[in-house]
Amino acid sequence: MIEFVKAWYNRYFSDPQALVLTAVLVVGSTIILTMGDMLLPVLASVVIAYLLEGVVRRMQQFGSNRITAVVLVFLVFVAFLIFLFFGVAS
User: Distance (Å, rounded) from C-alpha 23 to C-alpha 73?
Assistant: First the structure.
């Protein structure tokens, strides 16, 4: 049985990249499991920023300046959130 485990270990973990990947996955999983509640708003904000960046770039292609596009997209997004939370409740 020990030879089987040793052969399996040598087959899959002799590559340094596999060891690094395993370490990154273990550390990443540990961080997410222990600090998931604190990281959720950060991850949500990254996703929202990524999605809104496409709208900003599209507005820039149509000739708008970046600051104007960011402010306009932000205001529209905040107005949408206000309408979503307060418009549905009433």
Answer: 40
Q: Are 69 and 59 in contact (CB under 8 A)?
A: yes
Cβ neighbours of 69 (radius 10 Å): 20
Tokens of 24: 């990154």
Evaluated on CA atoms 70, 75, 79, 85, the torsion sign reads positive
* pLDDT single digits (tens) 80-90: 999 988 877 65
pLDDT band at 73 (very low <50, low <70, confident <90, very high): very high
Contact indicator for 34, 40 with CB cutoff of 8 Å: no
Residues 32 and 39: beta-carbon distance below 8 Å = yes
